[in-house]
Amino acid sequence: MQRLALLLLVLILTGCAEPAPPAEKLSATDLLSELGQAGFARATTPRDFQFPRDHGGHPEYRTEWWYLTGNLLSDDGRRFGYQVTFFRFSLTLPGGEKSASSWAGNPLWMAHVAITDADGKRHLSEERLTRAGPGLAGVAITPFRVWTEDWQLRAEGSEFPWHLDLTTRAFGLTLAVEPSVGVVLQGERGLSRKSAEPGNASYYYSYPRLRTAGTISLDGETLAVQGDSWLDREWGTSALSPEQSGWDWFSLQLNDGDNLMFYRLRGRDGKDDPHSAGSLTGADGATRRLDLEDIELTPLRWWQNPTGISYPVEWEMRIKSRDRTLRIKPLLDDQEMDHTVRYWEGAVDVYEGDNLVGRGYLEMTGY
Amino acid sequence: MVGSRLRSRLWRAGFRHQRRHTWQAILSVLGIALGVAVVMAVGLANQSASRAFEITMEQISGRVSHQIIGGPGGIPERLYTRLRMEHPYLPSAPVVEGVVRIGEEQLTLLGVDPLAERPFRDLTLDAPPAVLNQLLTRRDGLLIPAYSAQRLGLQAGSRLTLDIAGRTRETEILALFGARSQAALDGVLVTDIGVAQTLLTQYGTLDRIDLTLDGAQAARLRAWLPPGVQLVETEQRTAAMAGMSQAFQTNLTAMSLLALLAGGFLIYNTATFSVLQRRRQFGIMRLLGATRGEVFRAILAEQMIIGLLGTLLGMGAGILLARELLWLVTRTINDLYFALTVSRLDLAPPILLTGTLLGLLTTLIAASIPAWEATRSSPQSVNRRSVIERRSHRALPWLLLIGLAGMGGGLGLVQSSERSLLLGFAALFCFIMGYCLLVPTLVPPLSRLLQYPLAGAFGSIGRLASRGIDATLSRTGPAIAALTLAIAATIGMGIMVESFRDTVGQWLAQTVQGDIYVSATHSASKRASAPLPDWLPSRIQQLEGVAEISSGRHVTLESERGPVHLLAIGLASRSYRGFRFKGGTLPDLWARFAAGDLLLISEPYAYHQRIQVGDPLPLLTPDGVVSFTVGGIFFDYGSDRGLVVMPRERYAALWDDAQITTLGVYLQPGQPSGPLLTRIKQLAGQAERPLQVRANREILEQSLEIFDRTFTITRVLRLLVIAVAFVGILSAMMALQLERAREHAILRATGLTPRQLLGQVSLQTLLMGLMAALLAMPLGWLMAEILVHVINLRAFGWSMPSQLSPTILLEATGFALVAALLAGLYPSLRMARTRPALALREE
Q1: Structural domain total, chain A
Q2: Distance between CA atoms of A132 and B94, rounded to whole angstroms?
Q3: For residues B512 and A26, which has the higher predicted lDDT (pLDDT)?
Q4: Is any Cβ of chain A less than 8 angstroms from the Cβ of B115?
């Protein structure tokens, strides 16, 4: 999951609340690929993942995130999607000359929280953006805790279940997540290459299905909910290559137990980048890599946001090896995240023919 | 038809008159110009300083409605973390602020978190990403206002050496912000909060947290805040800070009005003369059918043109003068109140307009009296000068009455206005005006009194001289009044400054009881003086010849009513003598003070806060508000904001701050201070940051130097008032003597030699100078009394004895005589050179 990180840093620094026109975003990406990577570690070879250590931070890499998305159903049958994300962006190398100032040289943290209320036809989201400073944000392993101001993802010790307990202006989210399928190392044993250039890669692991239960507080009501979540963890130093313009990322949890992740990197020339990749994990945890040749993606329907940016919100996905054709429909067209950075991230239903065969999340950037 | 021709003839006659008496007109213009210039210059300088302060605060405070502030140690930054965790929806931003120097100039270093800035300030928002990245990642990057950069010759990429509490730090200008022409932020360096903490070595604490709150949020937050910090409204705090220098600025304005008043007398003089000189002409015009109104308007219009010319000239001169004054005003504000950089004159239209109106209004009032005089008389009698003189004398009882009423009113106003500074000044002006009106009534008895000794000394010339003054009272009266005013002003201000300086000198001598003092050069914090190294006291104590040491910690506590200076002292046995109390103290003062029950407060603090001995005084400590009792009020001239004194142990315990700021070293009796001074300097040299080691005498000298520096502006104003008066006197005397050309010619014709005439005229003008000096002495003294006991007290809260210094009186008399003599010189020389027949024929 390449996700947003590459765009984010520069956009945060420009403090760009207004959506930048695509051309500008791209040039910002260019700038970033030149900026501040020197000295940071790079993901070049597969590593020996160790847990729970690797749930914690990797400050020697420039960017890192904890990404939870999920589909939930309330006891009274209402359908929800949720997203909780913590991003870390380091500005300077750790381990350099230590400053006594708690503000000096530490990373920026950005957190996004959103829910999609399918029945209420609304997508509610909020952002926290801060630097680590004197304990304003950070990550710890024992007990496990990732936080940005008042929002946090934490565990009692260092093991699952992980707990979310956060409040936004519009809603509250209290969830516990516990894996029902084990960890999946994406790419080559967890090394996920994003372009041909060595080091333009990240370390990437997922928990493709986590049992999720808790409550959503909305409109003065507290609804008991349960469902499945997907956790992505990724860290690295690389940026998109200059020829890449954005990506479309899918995480689908099918009713038959399969869990599919696929990201399509888009080239500036409009073609799919050969480094687009993914994985297919069965209920037993057996994982198979997916490459560009394995998946065929076709946008079916576009949705235009108020500023004129169009996202392909409905897709057809052909899994060639399984000879399955899935149709991916959003719970809501407008699931755009309009914060320091603007992207589309939303809950989707998966159909095969007329049958609902699964649920998932879709992320689209660079539009 | 006839009327309009007459009118135009009146106008033309007026014009011709002014052309014939060019010098008189020029002096007149000059007088009003100087008056207006001084008023405008002071007004503009004051306005520029206030505006600069206001705009700087506005830019620094931005859209901040409230601030969380703490004690002398600032706010622990964890409080900000807690605030963000528990109140994530209140817009809040951490701020670290300090004072840095570039050479002699003081600048504010503002450390902000660019990520939290958006709701508050635009300072860092415009910076390009690369610059922001550098700001966040480097240890030495600064943003500087484009205006300051230009002024200091800096640009992006320039290295900049800052002097921070005596240590030098290398920094780099990353980028400029603001417009090149925008002087508002001059003197503010902006950087990342981490860089600011590093540069100021102020880790773990913030100076304040900025917030934007509504009333309900503020109330909720107040309840949430831990003890030791408080939530204040920015507006209130800014106003309290601006108020600090208000009294000083009001004083300047009042003094400038004195200059205008002198200018007003000048206009009155010249208008009177020009009317008198043309009494014949006006008489003829009236006989030809000109109405009173037409004559009145013609005279007034003529004088208004002079007034307008003077005002315009004064405006130009005022702007030029303001540039010089601005520097003096800013320096004084920096010395006494807060760091302020004002590099540009704010040509505020309201000030320019007020100055212009004041100039024209003064002219109007001053010229209407003689114009009215000229029209009041019947056409025939205008012609006769004796009528005017008789009328002048007839008016004397009225003047006496009005004058006394003015003075009485002034004194009454002093009594009834209690604490108002403005009313204090109004009273002073009433009093002065009243006295000036009184002057003409005092001239005849005075001249009669002087007649006999003069006759004895100079014979008939002496008698002539003194009688002449009485005989031409309509002109000598105002001239003497103007000179009296000017001299009295110099006497009054002189006595005030001298008394002040004397009092401060004595106070210093008493307060500075120690033999040697050690302190840090200057502080980077706005809240606390720079601390001394903690090993220093004991090392000094161990030195041979040292009897004991006293210590002090000087901090500024924040409050909604502005900063409160607190001095925590560890007293040596001799330091008790350093306090002189005003009125009584509570019993067992020192024992209870040492025990920590009592506080001592300085006189200005007591005055401003209306606190008396025995009153409770709550102070905000880190553990919440602690109430103390005021044990005594001591004289202190160090700060007009006032000072609160408590024992150091008590302060250290309450504020958890054991640092010290100053050390007083008391030597054993008979011990020479020289060797120990050297020894202590050596010790201080081992400290990380530079320390000042000064002998008692040096401190006294340096303090008085600063005193003199802050009073430079007063001296300059005093000189300016004198200059206006001098021009006034010159023009009045010249006009007077020129107007008496015929009289002089007759004197010549009856056998007076040119030399004798010169003697007679000089004697007369000298006599007027002497009269003015004599009359000015009581007024000057009374002015000084009001300045010292009313104005100073109300403005600063300082009481002090006034001291009549003979030097000032002698100086003033000398000045009066010289001014009068110089003024009489030209006309008498001219008269002496003219053949009497010619002068007679001209008439």
Answers
A1: 1
A2: 13
A3: B512
A4: yes
**B636 and B618 both lie in a single domain:** yes
Containing structural domain, residue A180? 5-364
∠ CA B73-B233-B530, nearest 5°, is 20
Strands A336-338 and A342-352: what pairing? Answer: antiparallel
Predicted pLDDT at B3:
54
- Digit-coded pLDDT (tens) for B97-119: 988 888 878 888 999 998 888 77
Overall domain count for chain B: 4
Examine residue B113 and state whether it is found in any structural domain, yes or no: yes
B530 with B642, same domain?
yes
Most confident of A266-270, B86-90, B570-574: B86-90
The reply to whether B188 falls in a domain is: yes
Q: Which of A7, A10, A13, A92 to mutate to test the interface with B (most CBs of B within 10 A)?
A: A13
B577 vs A: CB within 8 A = no
Q: Are residues B662 and B537 in the same domain?
A: yes
Final residue in a domain of this structure, among B383, B414, B435: B383
Residue pair A305/A336 in contact by the 8 Å Cβ criterion: yes
Q: Among partner residues A99, A135, A150, which is closest to B198 by beta-carbon distance?
A: A99
CA distances from A330 to A61, A257, A348, B483, B671 (A): 34, 21, 4, 94, 92
Q: Determine whether the interchain pair A135/B118 forms a contact, defined as Cβ–Cβ distance below 8 Å.
A: no
**Predicted interface score ipTM higher than 0.85:** yes
Record: contact B133-A13, CB cut-off 8 A: yes
- B494 pLDDT exceeds 90? no
Q: How far apart are CA B565 and CA B554, in angstroms?
A: 7
Q: Tell me if the pTM is above 0.90.
A: no
| pLDDT for residue B382 is more than 60 | no
Q: Is A77 left (phi over 0), alpha (psi -120 to 50) or beta?
A: left
Residue B827 structure tokens:
């006309």
Q: Is the pLDDT of residue A98 over 50?
A: yes
Q: Are residues B532 and B491 in the same domain?
A: no
Percentages (nearest 5) of helix, strand, coil residues in chain B: 65, 15, 20
The C-alpha of B115 sits at a distance from chain A's nearest C-alpha, in angstroms, of 6
Query: Are B364 and B405 members of one domain?
Result: no
Mean pLDDT for chain B overall: 82
pLDDT in tens, B766-813: 888 888 889 999 999 998 898 888 888 888 888 888 888 888 889 888
Distance from CA of A104 to the nearest CA of B (A): 5
Pairing status of strand B208-211 against strand B159-164: unpaired
Chosen for mutation from B75, B78, B79, B81 (greatest number of chain A CBs closer than 10 Å) is B81
Tell me which chain B residue has its CA closest to the CA of residue A99.
B198
> What CATH number is attached to the domain comprising A172?
2.40.370.10
In a domain, B515, yes or no: no
Q: Tell whether B81 and B56 lie within a shared domain.
A: no
Considering the domain architecture, whether residues B375 and B289 belong to the same structural domain is answered as yes
Residue B495: which domain range?
Answer: 384-509+706-843
Please tell me which residue, B771 or B638, carries the higher pLDDT value.
B771
Q: Which residues contact B99 (CB under 8 A, 6 or more apart)?
A: B106, B107, B108, B109, B339, B522, B523, B524, B525, B526
Instruction: Provide the pLDDT confidence category of residue A232 given band limits of 50, 70 and 90.
Output: very high
Beta-bridge mates of residue B766: none
The residue among B689, B717, B732 that closes a domain is B689
User: Is B538 contained in some domain?
Assistant: yes
Q: Do A92 and B86 touch (CB under 8 A)?
A: no
Q: Are residues B806 and B663 in the same domain?
A: no
The pLDDT value given to residue A74: 96
Give the residue from chain B lying closest to A10, CA to CA: B129
Of A35, A128, A134, which is closest to B88 when you measure between CB atoms?
A: A128
Chain B neighbors of A128, CB-CB under 8 A: 88
Q: Which residues are CB-neighbours of B146 under 8 A, at least 6 positions away?
A: B176, B177, B178, B179, B180, B182
